[in-house]
Each structure stands twice: as C-alpha cells, then as structure tokens.
Specification:
Strand content: under 5%
Shape: globular
Distance between the termini: 53 Å
Structural class: mainly alpha
C-alpha cells in the first residue's frame, strides 16, 4: 500500500470513533438503497404505464415523507416501517424525475450516465472533505445555505411571472453550489447529531439523498443545455 493511501486511511481512522463509523455505514447503506429505489421509480415512469409522474405521484411522495417524519423508530421496533416509508418516498421521487429524464434521452441518453458519474464524483469528494475536516468546521454553512435556499425559492416564485432565462440560470447554478455545500454541512451535522445521541440513520440518509438528487438533477439540466447549444452550432 502506498504511503499516501496509508496516510489517508490513518487520517480517516483517527477522525472518527468506531460507533460513528458504524452509524455512517448504516446511513450510506440506506442512501444506496434509496438511490436504487429512485432509479427503479424513474424506470417505471419511462418504460411502463404502471405509474407516471404527476399529481398522484407527488401526493404519494408527500404522504410517505410525512409518515417517515412522524413515525418514531420505537427503539428500533418500527425501523422496518421507516425504511419502507423512505424507499416509498425515494421511489416516487424517481418517478417525478421521469419527464426530465425522458427529455434528456431525446437529446442524448449518454448525458444521464455522465451526470450520474459527475454527481457521484462530486458527492464522494465533498463527503471525504467533510469527514477529514476538523470537527464542526463546516457547520457554519448552515445559515448561509438556508439563506441561499430561501433566495432560490423567492427567485423561483418571481420567475413564474417574469419567465427570465437569466434568472433560471442563476437559480440553476446557485442551486448546484448550494447542494454541494449541503453535502459538507449534512455530513458533519449527521456525525454531531450521532455524538449527541441521535441515532436515526434513516432520517440522516434522507438528508443525503436530497443532496444527491439535487446535484444530479441540476447536472442533468446543465449538460443537456450544453449539448443542445453544441447541436445548434453544428447545424448553423
């Protein structure tokens, strides 16, 4: 094993206590299942007529979200219900992304793979940065990130009336930067919550899933825009 890899592993082992590592394993296992459920949901929309993105899928996702947030794990006895609610929410989130994915497939299906790889690289990179940083180093981002998200909501509402392409682009890139920041913040806040006694790895994985999907969705749009612009230039 090279010295650089050994140094990295030693740094990781020294930063986190064994119970924290086990909790993070549970969190990322749930995140992997959630991502797979979202992929299945998107496939259901694209390739079947069983369930399509729309009002019913949105309401279903909201119901699963509320059930997840309001159901206690009851000392682990009801954990299987909470995991089920999580997977229900994430699968319907995937269904909701179906129309965007259909559009991307029409432009160039390779964009989906590129966006997924890019999202994974970004997510893993910021996660490692958060795990190896000093304890609580990125927690200050909570305030600025919430301010950024509030600004995005206001811009989205205003743009319903103005329909400005520049405002949409500002939302897109600001949202991407915010989601990257949330990976740093959420990773460290999950660790701190665990140290304070919060062992709810299902809810913690939900936070990271929202970050992952937020990055993926925005990369899809950005890459599709670039591909359409390149195609337009080639035709001129």
């Amino acid at each position: 094993m090279t010295p650089s890899v050994q140094s990295f592993l030693n740094s990781f082992n020294n930063k986190l206590e064994p119970p924290v590592k086990q909790h993070l394993k549970n969190v990322y296992a749930c995140l992997a299942m959630s991502t797979l459920a979202a992929a299945i949901g998107a496939s259901v929309h694209i390739y079947t007529d069983i369930l399509q993105a729309g009002f019913l899928s949105a309401i279903g996702g909201l119901i699963f979200f509320v059930l997840l947030m309001t159901t206690s794990d009851n000392g682990g006895k009801d954990m299987h219900w909470r995991v089920g609610y999580l997977l229900g929410f994430t699968s319907l989130t995937g269904v909701g992304m179906g129309p965007l994915l259909e559009h991307v497939i029409v432009v160039d299906p390779r964009i989906i793979v590129t966006a997924l790889i890019g999202t994974s690289v970004v997510f893993v990179s910021f996660t490692i940065c958060a795990l190896l940083a000093e304890r609580g180093k990125w927690l200050y981002l909570g305030g600025p990130l919430m301010t950024a998200m509030s600004t995005l909501v206001i811009l989205s509402f205003a743009n319903l009336f103005f329909g400005s392409f520049m405002v949409f682009q500002a939302q897109l890139y600001l949202g991407l930067f915010a989601m990257c920041g949330f990976v740093l913040y959420d990773t460290q806040i999950i660790i701190e919550k665990f140290r304070l006694g919060n062992r709810d790895f299902v809810a913690h994985s939900l936070d990271l899933f929202i970050d992952f999907i937020g990055i993926f969705r925005r990369l899809l749009i950005i890459l599709t825009q670039k591909e359409q612009a390149s195609e337009k230039k080639r035709r001129q």
